[in-house]
Every structure is written in structure tokens, then in C-alpha cells.
């Protein structure tokens, strides 16, 4: 499915609709790879998901801390895990953060920016690609299950 959004709010609306239609798997975490250049809207999309899952605190880019974990209350998932692999140069670093446990727990919803950097340890995942378009603040968002 492909969407064109004209501003941040529209991107967050796409995120909200996406998450309302997404259900947990029985045997593993739902992992979502967010592909696209810097500034294309990956973190903004994650913020939209966090808001619709009732995360009260501000979701900021985990570029420097690599991973942030948000607890969810009475939702389809118990944890939203937001990872930015941009600064990682080896998949090993993610392995050290307990990656195998993270992706095997069906209670987890995992969103990872720059998944191509750690592609050898990415399980099957939903792929969402962001593109900055020429026209003003437009973005193209393509969701590929
Ligand atoms: P990334 O995580 O991909 O580097 P961010 O979400 O951090 O990107 O940044 C996107 C920036 O672009 C934000 O400052 C946001 O306000 C702005 N923006 C403008 N138009 C859009 C849009 N249509 N969708 C998402 N973000 C947009
Ligand atoms: Mg980002």
C-alpha cells in the first residue's frame, strides 16, 4: 500500500491507521523495518504509533542511545521498542542489547530505523519505506507486508 502525505500530521494519521489494523503474532514479536533517508519521516511515523498506543512521554530519536523501550498499558502489545541502527556498524552491538529475546517475545512491537545496517540479523519483518518528494513537505510511504 502506498500513501502520499503532505505534512507531519498526515504521516501520523497513516501510522495510526496502520497500527489499528495490526495484530500481534502468536509466536514472535512484530518487527517493522523503517527504510528511508534522513528526514524522510521514520521517527515521526514512530511517534504517531506511540501516540496511538497511549505513550505519554515524548518519543525522540534513539540515534545516540540506539534503543528505547516504552511500556504500554492495556494494549495489544506490552512494549514498544524503538531502535535506530544508524550509528551501529555491526549487528553484534544489537545482539548485545538482547536482540534475540526482544524479537522472540510476542508482547513486543519493534520498530527499527535503518534496518539495512543490521540486515543479517533482521527476522521476517514488515517493510515501510519513506521517500522525501520534491513538492514541499510531501512524503511517500510504502507499506509492504
Ligand atoms: P527520520 O527519522 O526519517 O530521519 P524524522 O521523522 O526525524 O525523519 O524527520 C522528519 C522531519 O520532516 C520532521 O521535522 C517533520 O516535521 C518533517 N516533515 C515535514 N513533512 C512531513 C511529512 N509529510 N511526513 C513526515 N514528516 C514531515
Ligand atoms: Mg529518525
Q: What can you see in these coordinates?
A:
With 145 residues, the chain is of the alpha/beta class. Helices cover 25% and strands 28% of the residues. It contains four helices and seven strands. The chain has a seven-stranded mixed β-sheet. Strand 6 (126-132) and strand 7 form a beta hairpin. Helix 1 (8-20) packs across helix 2. The site of magnesium ion has 5 residues, from helix 2.
Concise synopsis of the structure shown:
The chain has helices at 8-20, 42-52, 91-96, 99-104, and strands spanning 2-5, 30-35, 67-71, 79-84, 108-113, 126-132, 139-144. With 145 residues, the protein is of the alpha/beta class. Helix 1 (8-20) packs across helix 2.
Average pLDDT: 95
Strand order of the largest sheet: 1-7-6-2-5-4-3
Q: Kindly state the percentage of residues in helix.
A: 10-25%
- Count of helices? 4
**Which structural class is indicated by helix and strand composition?**
alpha/beta
Largest sheet: 7 strands, mixed
What shape does the CA trace take? Answer: globular
Low-confidence segments:
none
* Radius of gyration (Å): 14 Å
Q: Bin the strand percentage.
A: 25-35%
Q: What string, H for helix and E for strand, traces the elements in order?
A: EHEHEEHHEEE
Distance between the termini: 9 Å
Total count of strands: 7
Bound molecules: adenosine-5'-diphosphate, magnesium ion
Amino acid at each position: 500500500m502506498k500513501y502520499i502525505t503532505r505534512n507531519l500530521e498526515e504521516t501520523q494519521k497513516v501510522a495510526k491507521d496502520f497500527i489499528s489494523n495490526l495484530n500481534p503474532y502468536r509466536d514472535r514479536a512484530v518487527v517493522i523495518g523503517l527504510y528511508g533517508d534522513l528526514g524522510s519521516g521514520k521517527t515521526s511515523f514512530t511517534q504517531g504509533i506511540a501516540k496511538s498506543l497511549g505513550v505519554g512521554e515524548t518519543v525522540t530519536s534513539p540515534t545516540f542511545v540506539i534503543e528505547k523501550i516504552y511500556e504500554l498499558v492495556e494494549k495489544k502489545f506490552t512494549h514498544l521498542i524503538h531502535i535506530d541502527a544508524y550509528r551501529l556498524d555491526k549487528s553484534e552491538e544489537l545482539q548485545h542489547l538482547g536482540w534475540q529475546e526482544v524479537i522472540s517475545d510476542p508482547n513486543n512491537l519493534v520498530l527499527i530505523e535503518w534496518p539495512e545496517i543490521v540486515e543479517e540479523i533482521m527476522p521476517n519483518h514488515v517493510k515501510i519505506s519513506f521517500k522525501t518528494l520534491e513538492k514541499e513537505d510531501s512524503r511517500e510511504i510504502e507499506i509492504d507486508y
